[in-house]
Amino acid sequence: MKPRKRSGPPVKRTGAPRSNAFKKPAPLPDTVQPTEKEKQEGIRLNKYIANAGICARRKADEFIEEGLVTVNDNVVKEMGFRVKPGDVVKYKGQTVRPTHLTYILLNKPKDFITTTDDERERHTVMELIKDATRERVYPVGRLDRNTTGLLLLTNDGELANELMHPSRMVSKVYEVTLDKPLEEEDLEKIRKGVILEEGAAQVDAVDYADSSDKRVIGIKVHIGWKRVVRRIFETLKYDVRKLDRVMYGPLTKKNLPRGKWRMLEEKELIMLKHLGKKIKMPE
User: Which of 21, 81, 112, 184 has the most other CB atoms within 10 Å of its CB?
Assistant: First the structure.
């Protein structure tokens, strides 16, 4: 990897070209639109539950098998059952309604925790998007309090599960600022895989992000171990002063200032959904 200036992403980009992937955000349809077949034949029960933001379809199948779902007050365990207009679906006795699917991209600042609420009354990322939607969205994954950068929030439980599933390889790119210059030999150790509690931490790419300052490193990972980037450098006796996520899958924070949010463009959403299905690891 060639050294890059600090102003740009630290590693080679993937996904759609920059020239047309991130134009001015266009509003997404915020309702779940049924297909013509669904209008005529109804929506499969597991999809109806997933569209309500309760869980992914596979989990909905489990709830159906366990007899936790009723349609018109009748327990339904048939996997192919279709919900027709006017049907009342309940999960654990509570009425289930299709929701407005919402996808928000946030450039998280420091000192905000990635949770929907906090008993200690610390600032949460939900404060930053309070005017974005009336829907109940939640973060996809986590960024710790002192980590900044891209965070996706949604009420699409199925997509969230796809992106966070351990069998997926959704890449994240970080810019790391250390307390001292990274030695060449330690850079090679990171490339080969630093040993952590879970095993060797394999990175997709790593290099100096700024040729004039070897404290600034660009690193691309897909493993989802807790605090994995910080732990890689801490294991090698470096203190991470700043950690900024600059890419999440095909998404970048271009034209998205710190602390601001925007809705995903339709093309970005398509790329994310394609990503979750395309990159399944072999059994």
Answer: 112
